[in-house]
Amino acid sequence: MDNSGKEKEAMQLMADAEKKVKSSHSFLGGLFGGNTRVEEACEMFARAANMFKMAKNWSAAGNAFCQAAKLHLQLQSKHDAATSFVDAGNAYKKADPQEAINCLNAAIDIYTDMGRFTIAAKHHITIAEIYESELVDIEKAVAHYEQAADYYKGEESNSSANKCLLKVAAYAAQLEQYQKAIEIYEQVGTNTMDNPLLKYSAKEYFFKAALCHFIVDELNAKLALEKYEEMFPAFSDSRECKLLKKLLEAHEEQNGEAYTEAVKEFDSISRLDQWLTTMLLRIKKSIHGEGDLK
Question: How many CA atoms lie within 13 A of 34 on its CB side?
Fold first, then answer.
């Protein structure tokens, strides 16, 4: 059966399901297995949704899953309702990001009500990603990452919480909310430096915290660097720490060339990503008349 055939069949199923729902509301329908009819309608909506998916009609699939979710709620099947809202969200993601968010939020409400915070957190991350890539609303993305981090922390899933918090910190720094970024980088750095498996990442977080300090104030950056070396001696030997010292020196002497040289040398061994490049440029701008990393 080709796609248009699938779509026709799906539309027929939708119409039949709606009839069943209507008849379950009638007096006689209520007497004779109203709930059974709603359950049958539920199944029909889900089947229709999957046919719409095969026909790649994502909006129609999302709508059909939504209808199923609402009937599950009517039947008091919370878990099934949440699952259907998530299915609806995943279908809408391909066609209507805002609708996808609405459905995922509906699922989150049910999961938090049931005390399923880890699953709720996972869906907050999906919403954050839609805000990042589809709707480009960074502040809303940050709010959902923060909520996910909170739920993960409450469930003692610290590494998942840290992942979300690092996203928040990176965006906070981009939005020039340096204090917020510093607090997160320091907190995650401190949490990871004693863990043999994560120790390697800790130097990166202290490096990023120091860069945020540096943009705000050179003296703060110096003091922060001393503090990090004391807390985490392994940081002293890192290339990141050596780079910071060279940059501080170049900045103090207002030597743009020395600053650029140090950055280039570091970049030749560990490629700088977009975030680091942005931060290093912001610092360089405070050296008289310097605006680029060339």
Answer: 13
CA distance 175 to 268: 28
Q: What is the pLDDT of residue 180?
A: 94
Query: Given a cut of 70, is residue 240 above it in pLDDT?
Result: yes
* pLDDT at residue 260 tops 50: yes
Helices then strands (H, E): number in the chain? 15, 0
Please give the structure tokens belonging to residue 91. Answer: 């279908």
What are the strands, taking DSSP E only, across the chain?
Answer: none
Query: How many angstroms separate the CA atoms of 283 and 69, rounded?
Result: 52
pLDDT of residue 206: 92
pLDDT digits (tens, 9 = 90+) for 156-194: 888 899 999 999 999 999 999 999 999 999 999 988 888
Which domains does the chain show, CATH number per domain?
178-293 (1.25.40.10)
Q: Tokens for 218?
A: 């050179």
Q: What is the DSSP letter of 270?
A: S
Tokens of 289: 């008349």
The span from the CA of 185 to the CA of 262, in Å, is: 23
Please tell me the distance from the alpha carbon of residue 172 to that of residue 31, in angstroms, as a whole number: 59
The yes-or-no verdict on residue 76 having pLDDT over 50 is: yes
What distance in Å separates the CA atoms of residue 5 and residue 10, rounded to the nearest whole number?
9
